[in-house]
Design goal:
mainly alpha; two-stranded parallel ribbon; 8 helices; globular
Length: about 190
């Protein structure tokens, strides 16, 4: 029952958000297109539900480069375009993932999906790493609203993120999803995410 309600909410919210934010999509797409060469969208293989890989969609926030699928972005990464810094800070680069939600690759709330290369790297290093794939990955999650977002330069950073993801999975409820949803909105509005 909970899974069905979660999926219904995901699809309805994603479709409404796509329609409501269409003008933002257009402005961002044009801005990306005129400020750096390459496509507007970026696709990257991520590990999803049950450990299955899928193509995650994002607005391109970096110059086209050969390390996009293996090297995690850092705060002062020279690959990030000037508009990319704003897109990443405001999380607007994540908007195309609403299509991933509609397609069923993702949920609105859940553990953030990691690059396939990171799944392969961290699985033997972090206990229960693969448990984070027991639910569909989310646009936002418990780890993100608790400050565990961005680069993981140290294995302990990833360990803390995985622990938060597993806490979410073990304590999942619609109320917890609502709390994460509103905390995400708040952090986006205050640019603290």
């Amino acid at each position: 029952m909970h899974k069905a309600l979660k999926r219904i909410f995901d699809v309805l919210f994603a479709l409404l958000a796509i329609v409501a934010l269409a003008p933002v999509w257009i402005v961002v797409a044009i801005w990306i297109a005129v400020t750096s060469p390459g496509g507007v969208f970026f696709r990257q293989k991520r590990t999803g539900y049950n450990g299955e890989d899928f193509d995650l969609l994002k607005f391109r926030s970096m110059y086209v480069n050969n390390e996009a699928d293996t090297l995690q972005a850092s705060a002062d990464d020279p690959r990030i375009t000037p508009i990319g810094k704003f897109l990443r800070r405001s999380s607007l680069d994540e908007l195309p993932q609403l299509w991933n939600v509609v397609r069923g690759d993702m949920s609105i709330i859940g553990p953030r999906p990691h690059m396939v290369a990171h799944t392969e790297y961290y699985t033997p290093l972090v206990k229960d790493y693969m448990r984070r794939h027991e639910m569909r990955p989310g646009l936002t999650g418990y780890a993100q609203v608790n400050g565990l977002r961005g680069a993981t330069p140290d294995v302990n950073d990833m360990r803390r993120r995985v622990e938060a993801d597993i806490y979410y999975i073990d304590h999942y409820s619609l109320w917890l999803d609502l709390k994460i949803f509103f905390l995400t909105i708040w952090k986006m509005l205050t640019l603290n995410l």
